[in-house]
Amino acid sequence: MDVLIPAERIQQRIAELAGAIAADYDRRPVTIVGVLTGCLMFLADLVRHLDLALRIDFIQASSYRGPVTNPGELHIQPELVPDVAGRHVLLLDDILDTGHTVAALVRHLEGLGAASVRVAVLLRKRGRQEVPVEPDYCGFDIPDEFVVGYGLDFNDEYRHLPYIAILPRFPGTDAAP
Ligand code: 5GP
Ligand code: MG
Prior knowledge:
Elements: E1 2-5, H1 7-25, E2 30-36, H2 40-47, E3 54-64, E4 73-76, E5 88-96, H3 100-111, E6 116-125, E7 137-142, E8 147-148, E9 164-166
Parallel strand pairs: 2-3, 2-5, 5-6, 6-7
Antiparallel strand pairs: 1-9, 3-4, 8-9
Helix pairs in contact: 1-2
The structure holds guanosine-5'-monophosphate (5GP) and magnesium ion.
């Protein structure tokens, strides 16, 4: 697979993002809410740079993209309710694609009574946004390719790779996986 973002570059950029986050929160306690499972590596590496009063919680969402449901319709796992009432929340996701997931999760967290919600994504795909979501922190803008590694999967594989790679399209087809 072609490496799009090498491991060292990811680590450098995460240190930069952590610097910006630490400066913005300036000793205000923050609750990081990671979107399972893709946030795994990003969250683990980011929080180790953050010298803040910090809690970690998780949320899980899956979108149904089958022919019978609207694209972007989101199911939020009801048994995983992060404790965010009155707290300043930083929502962490691996990738911003159409924007439906992040937009819905921000509304959901506000509905749970969060005092504020900011958004950090590691990756943002150019030219794909259907919902106007402007992340407060974004690691890399990437081209419209299907990427894996560093938490991102294809059929639950490749999450463990320390770099971001482009998954090759199947020969003879134009379809994204
Ligand atoms: P959105 O709601 O922004 O369209 O979708 C975001 C979700 O779609 C991400 O959290 C991720 O799970 C999945 N996704 C979008 N693009 C990619 C990609 O290139 N690779 C992988 N592995 N997942 C992606
Ligand atoms: Mg995801």
